[in-house]
């Protein structure tokens, strides 16, 4: 990629930089996202990486027990990767990952909620512009399926808490349509952060469509499934890309002074440690550490 | 006691050395910023650490943050009840919410950290 120039002045005074990367496996995606945070520190810039997954993958939050994932027989055979960020498990495959790295000195690098809200508000605004009535969750529910009488719930250990899209944290993007899983709304975007000394990495998963590659018992409706007539973004095709581009433009207006989109893929400095990260994110010492 | 503690820019506090050992925690500001703590991982007793090295992690509803050693030394004790009572961090961050005790390699290193006034100026300048 062409070199990205460091910010000349205070953080936030430069355009944000965004890359659209090709599908990759879990370890590669995590290593590149971690490197995104290190590059945000080095360049003192807000960096964004938009990525998808080359195979259906279960990503675990940083502290989730891998036994819970393995206990989900329905997920057997899916590769598992542990994220550096927190939050609940995500079944990737019909979502797009919105990774945002912000230097800690940036106005959104302080308290966690501000970056969360800024990124999510841009999605809500973009969806509204497309006639989709999404909003931000008040965040009171953490156990979507518990006590609902759902016969599959008993098979899932702490089901609501385990899967990200069964949780409702303050600021999650929801569409006011019952999700068929005991919630009166459907979550379409959730995010979680890794807060390093010099930068914050925020992972967001925007669920474009229900993931047909996973069993129905762990499937959540996505944007395409929630709209009358369907086809809100038609998955990760031109419609989905257009939606994310609209979000990116809004985010750039909120976080920086414009937007740079270098040609080519995100190709960080060797100092960012991508090679080491790709090894670590494939090892049991990381993925099965809990 | 609070007037004597020093702070790292990464929001850990460290007490004066007593009996060769200093106590480490995280500031009330950091606890408040993280909100809704759900999990904490502590280091092993006996571990040797460098200043600025990660000695643990703490997870809130939305974020995972590293805890950093404010000075180099050996971890001699951890507050093992804390992970099961994370509310203590919010209620008494400078007392019962202590996290580890460390035997500094060089106690004078503590003097190079921020005093309370400098730390308050730091957090006053940070985005809220």
Question: What's the SSE blueprint?
Answer:
The complex is a heterodimer of chains A (290) and B (128).
Chain A: E1 16-20, H1 26-43, E2 47-51, E3 57-60, H2 66-71, E4 80-82, E5 90-92, E6 95-103, H3 112-129, E7 135-136, H4 159-162, E8 173-175, E9 186-195, E10 199-207, H5 223-226, H6 238-255, E11 259-260, H7 274-280, H8 284-287
Parallel strand pairs in A: 1-2, 1-11, 3-4
Antiparallel strand pairs in A: 2-6, 3-5, 6-10, 7-8, 8-9, 9-10
Chain B: E1 6-7, E2 12-14, E3 22-26, H1 28-34, E4 37-41, E5 48-49, E6 54-60, E7 63-68, E8 73-78, H2 87-91, E9 100-104, H3 116-125
Antiparallel strand pairs in B: 1-2, 2-3, 3-9, 4-6, 5-8, 6-7, 8-9
Q: CATH homologous superfamily of chain B?
A: RNA polymerase II/Efflux pump adaptor protein, barrel-sandwich hybrid domain
Q: Please trace the helix and strand order of chain B, writing H or E for each element.
A: EEEHEEEEEHEH
Number of helices of chain B: 3
Tell me, briefly, the overall form of chain B: globular
Secondary structure category of chain A: alpha/beta
Topology, number of strands of chain A: 11
Helix content of chain A: 25-40%
Q: Just give the CATH class of chain B.
A: Mainly Beta
Distance between the termini of chain B: 27 Å
Helix fraction of chain B, binned, reads 10-25%
CATH-derived topology of chain A: BirA Bifunctional Protein, domain 2
Average pLDDT of chain A works out at 84
Main sheet record of chain B = 6 strands, antiparallel
Q: What's the CATH class label of chain A? A: Alpha Beta
Poorly predicted spans of chain A: 141-160
CATH A-level architecture of chain A? 2-Layer Sandwich
Report the biggest beta sheet of chain A as strand number plus sense, adding barrel if it closes: 8 strands, mixed
CATH topology of chain B: OB fold (Dihydrolipoamide Acetyltransferase, E2P)
């Amino acid at each position: 990629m062409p070199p990205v120039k460091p910010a000349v002045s205070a953080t936030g005074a430069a355009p944000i930089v965004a890359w659209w990367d090709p599908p990759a496996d879990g370890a590669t995606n995590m290593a590149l996202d971690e490197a995104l945070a290190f590059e945000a520190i080095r360049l003192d810039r807000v960096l964004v990486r938009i990525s998808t997954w080359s195979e259906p993958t279960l990503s675990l939050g940083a502290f989730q027990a891998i036994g819970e994932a393995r206990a989900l027989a329905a997920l057997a055979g899916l590769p598992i990767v542990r994220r550096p960020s927190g939050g609940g498990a995500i079944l990737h495959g019909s979502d797009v990952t919105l990774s945002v790295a912000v230097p800690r000195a940036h106005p959104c690098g302080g308290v966690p909620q501000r970056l969360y809200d800024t990124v999510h508000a841009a999605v809500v605004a973009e969806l509204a512009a497309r006639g989709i009535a999404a909003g931000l969750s008040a965040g009171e529910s953490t156990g979507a399926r518990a006590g609902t009488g759902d016969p599959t719930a008993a098979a899932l250990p702490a089901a609501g808490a385990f899967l990200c899209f069964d949780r409702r944290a303050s600021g999650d993007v929801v569409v006011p349509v019952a999700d068929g899983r005991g919630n009166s709304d459907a979550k379409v975007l959730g995010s979680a952060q890794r807060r390093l000394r010099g930068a914050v990495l925020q992972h967001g998963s925007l669920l474009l469509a229900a993931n047909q590659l996973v069993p129905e018992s762990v499937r959540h409706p996505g944007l395409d499934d929630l709209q009358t007539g369907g086809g809100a973004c038609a998955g990760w095709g031109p419609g989905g890309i257009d939606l994310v581009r609209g979000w990116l433009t809004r985010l750039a207006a909120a976080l920086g002074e414009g937007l740079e989109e270098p040609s080519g893929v995100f190709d960080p400095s060797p100092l960012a440690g991508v090679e080491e990260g790709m090894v670590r994110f494939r090892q049991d010492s990381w993925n099965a550490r809990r | 006691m609070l007037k004597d503690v020093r702070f790292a820019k990464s929001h850990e506090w460290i007490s004066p050395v007593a009996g060769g050992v200093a106590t480490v925690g995280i500031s009330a500001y950091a606890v408040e910023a993280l909100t809704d703590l759900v999990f904490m991982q502590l280091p092993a007793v006996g571990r040797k650490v460098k200043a600025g090295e990660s000695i643990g992690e703490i997870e809130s509803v939305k974020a995972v943050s590293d805890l950093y050693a404010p000075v180099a030394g050996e971890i001699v004790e951890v507050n093992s009840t804390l992970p099961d009572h994370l509310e203590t961090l919010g209620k008494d961050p400078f007392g019962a919410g202590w996290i580890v005790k460390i035997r500094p390699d060089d106690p004078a290193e503590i003097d190079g950290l921020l005093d309370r006034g400098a730390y308050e100026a730091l957090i006053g300048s940070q985005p809220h």
